[in-house]
Amino acid sequence: MNLVFYIAALVAIFATLRAVLHKHAVHALLYLIVSLLSVAVIFFILGAPFLAALEVIIYAGAIMVLFVFVVMMLNRGEAAVQQEKEWFRFRTWAWPSVLVLILFVEWVYMLWRGSAQQSFAGVTQGPIQPQQVGELLFTQYLLGVEMAAMMLMAGIIGAYHIGKQKQKSYHRYLEEKSDQISISENKTQEVI
Amino acid sequence: MNTVIHIIMIILILLVLLTIAAGLIYVERRMLAVWQDRYGPNRTGPFGLLQVLADMVKIFFKEDWIPPFVDKKVFIIAPTIVMMAVLMSFAIIPFTPKIGVVDLNIGVLFFLAMSSMGAYSVVLAGWASNNKYALLGGIRGAAQMISYEVFMGLSLMGVVILAGSFNLRDIVEAQRKIWFFIPQIVGFVIFFLAGLAETHRLPFDIPEAESELIAGYHAEYSGMKFGMFFVGEYLGISLISALVTTLYFGGWLGPHFLPPIVWFLIKMFAFILLFILIRATLPRPRYDQLMSLGWKLLLPLSLLNLLVTGAVVLYGHL
Fold first, then answer.
1. Domain locations along chain B
2. Does A69 contact chain B (CB < 8 Å)?
3. What's the ipTM?
4. pLDDT digits (tens, 9 = 90+) for A142-182
5. Which of B116, B127, B166 sits opposite A61 (nearest CB)?
């Protein structure tokens, strides 16, 4: 299983780097999907098959499809790639890289000291079954679930409010005849 | 030794599935002809059986043309995704107690994950083709498949509640007393409709509606790349039929005078024929009609089904 973990981890790191560095939006998104899939494999190996399945269904399957969908609709082509190239200068990525490097050094230091092993000890207690996850969600973490639900509800209401204002269509067949229009039409006919 | 037997079984299942998918092209054309009072392919070989072979040879030898304006990498990857996703899903199907690739304790979820991966095939093919009709097809496909995945998952949960497991073998074993399509008739109908939409078969083949979008997302494809979409669609039909059989019609269970695998195949082919019969009879709805059917009727119904099933199971436990 260790070998599988290292392969999946390497794929995840490579794909994530490509997702950040790629200049073409759709290709970058595809790399991000690959990275999510390999993270799902890692979850599976760690003994959380339910989480792995949800990772694929929700992140790789639903959310990323919507991302691809939006990028597809915008379909900006070569101009966007040129713009990305201009934005991607040394000045832009130098400081973030330094910050990441600091974190990386810290992480390596912790692994080296062995203190991280204690925090990883709780992870591998054997596979966690879907029933256990469900029970935890509806007992210990009920408050979190409810709060997430409220936030999503707010999102839905907001989206509905923004999308509610219908654009009026002037097609002669598709036009929905509201009262005002029919009245004004009658008036014009009377005038004529 | 066990591993070798397992690998041989996997290869055999793969070969049988691909043969079934190719054979379905002939079955579909003949059955459509029967239901529409005409002959169908009947010239090549006995009863036109060799027509499939001729078509296959043709499609392999066609020029594999990649138009110069497409996004080449994505264009090539897109058709492989649908084949991979569908064939991976077959891994969880228990054909009999002994025949099956893997005994996964999250089987149902694995199927849902793979079917959501399949949506990428349509989306990416539509986008990479760099063609207005293909893009429209891809957009329609994405919206349709994401929406119908929602209630496909929800309708399955009724079965999961009754069986108390995501494992397909446990689900089949739980149907020894009564097949789940009787207590879960609503779930069954919703799952079947969602399955039609997921495989974008006619009535719901809106992403490729040939009278509006030429061929939709695969308008630019030719040769074996088109063939992959084509075979992928038939594999998808077989997959949904196999799943309906497993989840709602007792899988391999049946009276003892026939072996389990025969029962499974009989049930599966009955549903494949139902798919073809629906294609032969129903016209295609408009795109917005499909969407409002999904969100305004099927989603509340599947939630209600889930609620009632949960309440009944809970009441039984008390």
1. 63-317
2. yes
3. 0.79
4. 899 999 999 999 998 988 888 776 666 566 666 555 545 44
5. B116
